[in-house]
Structures are given as structure tokens and as C-alpha cells.
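Suppose you are handed a protein chain with no further information: no name, no annotation, nothing but its sequence. What can you learn? This example shows the usual starting point.
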Amino acid sequence: MSVTIDITGLPQERIAFGPSPLAELGAALHALSEPGHHARLHGWTTTTAAGLKPELADRLHEADFMWRSTRSDILLPAQPRETLAEELDDLDRMDDERYVAAALEINCAGFYDRGGPSPLVDAAMRQRALDLAAARGPRQAAFVRRMLADPPGTRAWIRRLLEDCDEAFFADTWRRVHVQLATDARHKTELMRRKGLSGAVAAVSSALTLEEDAHGSRLVVDKLSDGRTTAQGSGVTFLPTAFGWPHLIALYAPGWQPVIQYPVSSGELAGVLPVETVKLRLEAVSHPLRMRLCRNLARASYTTSELADAYGITAPEVSRHLAVLKKAGLLSTRRRGRYVMHQLDVAAVARIGSDFLEAVLR
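A reasonable first move is to predict its three-dimensional structure. Written in C-alpha cells, the prediction is:
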């Protein structure tokens, strides 16, 4: 499972790294609405939420479907600007059909990777958006009805909301993180110049890889979702964020320039496991007999024969189960004379929960 961006033949100058105030505001709003995803930001989210005026907090709750579970594409600009006002001006130039479809596509439309007509012009998409919004509660249903009935008025309301967030807390936050984000973007750009795209991609995240073969070149984002798009004719934009971890967001909607928002500080994501490895580890420890074997192996090292004798099964059967644990990276082995000793990697097992959570939130 992964998101694949075809970059075959794409000139390097069409690949850009740069900070975006709008994207960072979207990441900050997500952290405020889902603080459980962002334990490292506990101090900021607690202080900021406590300082919000009730009226602003209420308006944020009304529109939070655009950033709560993931980010609406309108909050991930492909052409970052210096100021939030400039990026909001760019949004204002987007036509209503495209804006509304993008604003509602994540949580209301349900056809993200396939695209489709805007709910402003297609009755079936309109009804689907209303039905899915109703399932999320009366506030979201009312907001979606308002957006479909009065796109210009609702768009102006959203812009005022974002501007009020800027005045209330984000302007100060942006001043504090902008230098870090700009520095990271310059560093990645320089890496790309000196070591090529592969060097820059390796520095972004271990969950992002560049694949090149006879069929072309692809950026592959290791996620628990499938998607495919192309950057041919447009480009790829990388947006650093100080609020993102553990999320690695990829915009891959048809007809949009691909955008990847990645957390700064490579140490945060440098040790992430591939989704396939997380799957292997969960499957490895879910088998009843392997769970029992782990009980022994967590306490001391054992030979295959010792485990077979302890559980009354054959040595080849024990070997098959040990092979599964070893393939998942949960078992260490060492030779002691003519005996091979097996022991559970307790540290790796202890990380299964956090690795799983990081994978599903990525």
C-alpha cells in the first residue's frame, strides 16, 4: 500500500521545497482539533486552546472537518507564498466548483483518488456530500448545506475564520517556526542540487522513496492507503511543517499538482518502519502458539529443541514459528557452541503499539 507520484521526465527545477503559512496553519488547526495525535505539542495545544475566545473556538469547531481527520487540499498550496494573505488571495481566485469539491472531497465526497464532478453541478455528488455530512452530525451537515447553497458567502466566511486565527494565535506561531521551516527547505534544495533528488528525498523521511527503473521515475509514499497520480506537466511541491509529526501528507487528487507535507527534524521520522513491516509484526505476534513461545523467549534464550520439548510439538514446527518472528524482526539469534539460541527482541516488541499508531496516522 502506498501513494505513487509519477515524475518521469520531470525537470529538477519543477520540484520545489518551501514553507507555506497556509499549510502550516492547517497543520496547527489539525493539532488543536486532534491533540491526541500530537503528544509532543501538548504545551502548545493546551495553551493555545485555553486562549481562544469562545466565539472563535465555536467557529473552528463548525469547519473542522476540513482539517480534523486529514487536510483539505485547499490548505496545501502547490505554490507557497511569503504571507498568509497572499495564499488566501490565491484561493480567492479559484472557481467555486473546484474550491467546493476540494473543500468537501476528503470527508464528504468519498471519491478522492478517482476525482469526479463538483457537487455544485452534479446532483448525485451533491446528495452524497449531504448524506455523509449528516452522518457526522448536525453542525457539519448545516455547514455543508450552507456551502452548497452559497459558495461565495461560505468562502468569505472561511477566509475570515483563517484571518481571525492568524490574529488570535497563528501570526506569533508563524514568526517562531518560519525560520526553522525556511532553513529546512533551503537545506533540502541544496541537497537536491548536490546529491540529486534521491538525496533530498532520503532526508525528508524514510517513509518516502524514489524509485527509478526502465519504466520511469516515481516518488512512493509508504502509507496505509493506495493512490496514484502524475506530476508530468506540473511539478511536485514539498512543504515542511513543525506541527506535522507523525503525519506525512500527500496531495494526489486528479488534476492537482502533487504536494507532500513532511515534518521537519528528520529524527522524528528517521526510524519509522515500513507499513509492511508493521503488518508482519502484528501478524507474527497474533498467532496463539507464537504468543506462548514469546512468553519463554522474552525471559531467556532457548534452543529449538528446548521449546519443542516445553510445548510438546515437533522441532520443525517450532522452527516455522521462529522463522515468522525472525522475518518480522522480533527475534535475535546467537550461536553457543553447537547450539543456536533464540531470544525475543523485547525493545522491538515494545514498539509495536507506537509503530502501529504511527503507521495508521502517517
